[in-house]
Amino acid sequence: MANKRPRVVIVGAGFGGLWAARTLAGALVDVLLIDRNNYHTFLPLLYQVAAAELEPEQIIYPVRTMLRKLPNAGFIMAKVTGLDPASQTIEVNGSIIPYDYLVLAMGSTSHYFDIPGAAEYAFPLKTLEQGTAIRNHILCSFERAVYETDEEKRQRLLTFTIVGGGATGVEFAGALAELIRGPLTKDYPKIDFKKVKIILLEAADSLISMMPDELRRYAFERLRWMGVDVRLKTTVSRIEPDAVYLGDGSPIPTEAVIWTAGVRGEPMAQAWGLPTARAGRVTVLETLQLADYPNIYVVGDLSYLEEDHHPLPLVAPVAVQQGVTAAENIKRQIKGQRLKPFRYNDRGTMVTIGRNAAVARIGNRSYTGFFAWVVWLVIHLLNLIGFRNRLLVMINWSWYYFFFEHAVRFIFPSEIAGAAQCSRERKG
C-alpha cells in the first residue's frame, strides 16, 4: 500500500477539467474524470446551434475518445451530489469515491438576478440541450405564425428578445438576424418579415463591456445595421409567458426571451459550504487551491480570482490555463515543490457579428470587419476538438457563406423541461 499512486479526481469535462486531465497524462497519479455527460461541448459555438447554423453533434466530442491516449485516466458518467473535504471523499450516484487531490471544474449556470419569471419563462443558453430548445422554439414560432389569425398573438410569436449584451448576446443576435433575414424569408413567404423584431436589451451603457470603446461602437452600429433593435441602459423587471417587462414598467409582448445576461458558479459548490464570492464563484488562492483545503483546486467559471483588482473573465482560455496550472501544481505538491501562482495570459478577445463582421482585440491592437471575422473563423476552427467536427463545421460555414443557406433548420423533439414543440405548450 506504501507504493499506491495518488488519486486525482476531476469533476467536470469542460475546458478546465479536460485540460487538467491532459496535463496529468504520464504523471505518477491515477486520474478519474467525472461528468454528467459523456461528451465535451465546445461552448464558444453553442449560439450557432441555437441559431440553426450548426448541428449539436458538430460541437461536441466523446470524453472517452479524448482519454484513450491517457493510460492513467478513467471516466465515470455521473453527477456528483456530495463533497466531504474532511474525509476527502465525494458522493457520486449514492457511491463514495475517495480522492487524494480534487479538481472542481463544474462550470457555471445562468444567473437570473432574482428577476421574477426569468427562470421559468426565459430560455437560457448554457448547455447543448438549451441551445437545441432555443432553435426548436424559434422555428416553431414561425410555424405557428403562419396560421395564426390573431394579429397580436402573431406579433408576439415574431418578436425575439435577447437579454444581455455581452459576447454571447451579441453573437447570437447577429446570427439570429441572419437566420431570419436570410433563409427564413424564403421558407415562410406568407409572413410579413417587416413585422419580425429582434430586440437586444443591455443594462449597461454599451455592448461587450470588456472590449475597447471603438469595438463596442462597431458592434452596436453593426447590429443596428442588421436590423436588431439594440436598447442600452435598459433593465428587465419581470418576465411573463407572453411579455418581458422593462425597468420603467413598459412591456414588450413576446413569447421568446433568450437569457444571456449573466452566469453564476455551479450552485452545488455553495451548497457544500465552500467559500464563495460574487455570483456564487468559489474563492481560491493564487495557486487555485482552497485556503482551508490545499488538496482541493477550483478552476474555470467556478473559481473566483482577481488580477489587477478585477475578477478574471469567464471565458474558455482562462479555464484552459487554470486547468493546466492546477494539474502542474498537483504534480509539484506531490513532489514537495513550491507551487506556481496562476497568471492569466490574455491573448485577446474576439466576437463575431454575423457574416464578414467581427471585433477582435489581440494584444494592444483592435480590429474590426472582415479581417477580424477571418481571424475569428480560423481560431475557432483550430480549437474545435476532432478532425471530423472541424471538417463538418467548415463545410457548413462554407455552404452558408456561398449559398446563403442554413443547413440545419430542423425541429427535433427535445426531452428537457421547457423545450418548445410546435404546439401551444409554453415553458413552466
Folded structure, characterized:
Residues 414-420 and 424-428 have low confidence and may be disordered. Strands 5-2-1-9-21 form a 5-stranded parallel beta sheet, covered by helices on one side. It has a 5-stranded parallel beta sheet with strand order 11-18-12-13-14. It has a 3-stranded antiparallel beta sheet with strand order 6-7-8, with no helix packed on it. It has 2 domains: 7-36 and 78-108 and 263-335, FAD/NAD(P)-binding domain (3-Layer(bba) Sandwich); 118-261 and 348-403, FAD/NAD(P)-binding domain (3-Layer(bba) Sandwich), CATH 3.50.50.100. The chain starts with 6 loop residues before the first strand and ends in a 25-residue tail after the last helix. Helix content is 32%, strand content 24%. The longest helix is centred in the first third of the chain and has 20 residues, at 128-147. The protein contains 13 helices and 27 strands. With 428 residues, the protein is an alpha/beta fold. A hairpin with a 2-residue loop joins strand 7 and strand 8. Helix 1 (15-23) packs parallel to helix 11 (316-335) and helix 5 (128-147) runs antiparallel to helix 6 (151-157).
Alpha-beta classification: alpha/beta
The DSSP helix count reads 13
Uncertain regions: pLDDT < 50 for 5+ in a row? 414-420, 424-428
Q: Care to count the β-strands?
A: 27
Supply the number of structural domains: 2
Largest sheet entry: 5 strands, parallel
CATH topology of the largest domain: FAD/NAD(P)-binding domain
Helical coverage, percent range: 25-40%
Label the overall shape. globular
**Beta-strand residue percentage:** 15-25%
The CATH architecture classification of the largest domain is: 3-Layer(bba) Sandwich
Assign the CATH class of the largest domain.
Answer: Alpha Beta
Radius of gyration of CA atoms, rounded to a whole number: 22 Å
Termini, distance in Å? 53 Å
User: Kindly state the mean pLDDT as a whole number?
Assistant: 92
Strand order of the largest sheet: 5-2-1-9-21
